[in-house]
Structures are given as structure tokens and as C-alpha cells.
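User: Hey, quick favor. My workstation is busy. Could you predict this chain's structure for me?
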Amino acid sequence: MSNKNRNKGHKYERDIRKDFIRLGFSNCVTSRYGSKMLDDKGIDLMYTGDFAVQCKCYSRNPNYRRVLDEMQVRQTDYPVIFHKVPRGSEYCILYKEDFLELLEMLIENKIIKTP
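Assistant: No problem, here it is.
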């Protein structure tokens, strides 16, 4: 990987970290800064509650299934991939069962309503 691409990826991790801090995860840090061991497990951000976060910033789609499967997370964590396409959109990818569980919690707590 070229330094330019590597720097883009590191910047994207810091950008996502800022999003988590803005949402109340005030201790959030990159795992490159906080824990080499966690970084080696495929986790890019620390102190994000029950979310295990991997950040990708490149034009080609990563193999989402492989990335999710290779993330070494606790059984209670929700592994999430944040993917930014340069000069394009950003996406969050997670397992369907995790999305449905989160959606169910939002409905049960009357945060969102069903028709």
C-alpha cells in the first residue's frame, strides 16, 4: 500500500473517531494509538461501546464478508465496516441479524415507530 493511500485510510479512521466522539463516545481513540493488539484483530477504533469498527477508504469495494469474518470481536459486539469511496459516498456494512436486532431495540424503546 502506498503512503498516500495509507494516509487516506488513517485520516478516515480519525474522521470516524470524531463522529463517535460527537455522539458521546468521548474516550474513543484509534487502535493504532491505543492498542496494537486490538489493531491486529482488525478493529480500528477503541471505546465505541458495543460496536467493533473497521474503517476502509478506497474506491474498490472490500470483500465485506471476509472483513467482517476476520474481525476478532466479543460475542456481544456489533462488527461494523465504515467504507468511504473517494469523492463519493460513505457506507456502513453490518450483518443482517445485527441490523435487525438494533432495529428491534429502537422500536421496543419507542425511538422509532412502525406504521
